[in-house]
Amino acid sequence: MCPIIFCGDLNSHPNSGVMKLLLDRRLCKKNGKTWHHLCTYEWEEGAMTNKGGDDKKGGLKDIEAIDLEFPPQFPNLMSAYKDCPPDFTHYIEQFICTLDYILVTDNFEVERVGGTPTREDVEKYVAMPNECMPSDHVSLVCDLKWR
């Protein structure tokens, strides 16, 4: 399998359907918002169009979950921060959440990850960005080793 390092601002909280699919390779029908969005899109003449409907529109009415066991070439990904997930990677007054990730295939061993600020660190300045933190996102870093 090809080694993959996939990182960035995915704009998805840790329990979102996107992260469930990427990390667990499974999305249950009970994941309401994501499932609803999947059900409102249809492929039509090579383009994806929003039909704005319910389960009947997207053809997922009788499906209980989406599993990514097949195709087998879809890689197993893990978070570099799986043993010590950050409390947040995005911090503004109205919204505090983890949105940024470093995901790697099992070709890599995570040797260590960089520290992230605490809520107390950020609250001194109200939010991010501020005079000490130039972005509204935390920089994530890690040292990886080939297996």
**What is the H-and-E element order?**
EHEHEEHEEEEEEHE
Q: Whole-Å distance between the termini?
A: 12 Å
- The 3D shape can be described as flat
Structure classification = alpha+beta
Q: Helix count?
A: 4
Compute the number of strand runs.
11
Assembly state here? single chain
Architecture overview:
It is a single chain. Strand 3 and strand 4 form a beta hairpin. This protein folds into two domains: 1-15 and 71-147, no CATH class; 26-67, no CATH class. It has helices spanning 17-24, 32-39, 55-58, 119-123, and strands at residues 5-9, 26-28, 41-44, 47-50, 65-67, 78-79, 90-92, 95-97, 100-104, 108-113, 142-146. With 147 residues, the chain is an alpha+beta fold. The chain is 17% helix and 29% strand. The chain is flat, with a radius of gyration of 18 Å.
Describe how the helices and strands are arranged:
Elements: E1 5-9, H1 17-24, E2 26-28, H2 32-39, E3 41-44, E4 47-50, H3 55-58, E5 65-67, E6 78-79, E7 90-92, E8 95-97, E9 100-104, E10 108-113, H4 119-123, E11 142-146
Antiparallel strand pairs: 1-9, 2-5, 3-4, 6-9, 7-8, 10-11
Give keywords.
alpha+beta; 2 domains; three-stranded antiparallel β-sheet; about 150 residues
Provide a concise account of the structure shown.
With 147 residues, this protein is α+β, with helices and mostly antiparallel strands.
